[in-house]
Specification:
This protein has about 200 residues and is an alpha+beta fold. It has one domain. Helix content is about 20%, strand content about 35%. It is built from three helices and six strands. It has a six-stranded antiparallel beta sheet, covered by helices on one side. Helix 2 packs antiparallel against helix 3. The longest helix has 15 residues. The radius of gyration is 18 Å and the shape is globular.
Length: about 200
């Protein structure tokens, strides 16, 4: 008898398409345990970046405290959900450290959201029902955790329903868009370009 607990073929194909993505050398991609209660089937990966690493085209070996980190979660409900407008949903979270000149910039949430929409558009990742939030946060460290030091971050949370392919199963473009989003948030130059200004931390 078929295993009723096994992921359906369309979910397995969607996961396989996400794994086809080839990130730029400055990004460290790793599998991640996905929250199990968001949908019947889930899968996720994380991406970390450091604007000061990988400038010579070398992979990033280890990032104890990356400037930018994010995760992309794939959700699948074979029955579909009305809010999704489909059976698949992609959920992302990005946290990036702001540069000094960006502190207090009231337009930062608008800029942060544009990182996502431009990445999706430039990679041809079609979608519906896109929504999310961009939040600026500030924290100061004290005592034994390397303080006092102030960190100002921007956090982006978003989700969308992939479209443009049969049952939304080919998600490679969406994974590439997510990696571009992380690179933009980290202040990395476009692929092939040379950054003339080093990001300050």
């Amino acid at each position: 008898m078929p295993d009723s607990t096994a992921p359906p073929p369309e979910f397995r194909r969607a996961v396989a398409s996400l794994q086809l993505m080839r990130p730029r050398p400055e990004l460290l991609v790793a599998p991640l345990d996905a929250p199990p209660r968001l949908a019947p089937y889930t899968w996720a990966f994380s991406v970390e970046a450091d604007a000061g690493a990988g400038r010579a085209g070398e992979p990033v070996p280890d990032l104890d405290e990356p400037d930018t980190s994010g995760r992309l979660i794939l959700l699948h409900d074979p029955s579909g959900q009305d809010a999704w407008e489909g059976t698949f949903r992609l959920v992302c979270f990005i946290q990036a450290r702001l540069e000094r000149e960006q502190l207090g910039d009231e337009m930062m949430p608008v800029v942060g959201w544009s990182w996502l929409t431009e990445a999706l558009e430039q990679n041809g990742a079609e979608y519906v029902a896109l929504g999310g939030t961009v939040t600026q946060t500030s924290s100061v460290r004290f005592g034994d955790i390397a303080g006092p030091r102030r960190d100002d971050d921007v956090e982006l949370r978003a989700s969308w329903t992939p479209t443009g392919s049969a049952d939304g199963m080919d998600l490679t473009r969406h994974a590439e868009a997510f990696c571009q989003l992380v690179a933009s948030a980290a202040g990395l130059p476009p692929v092939g370009a040379v950054s003339l200004v080093h990001r300050t931390v």
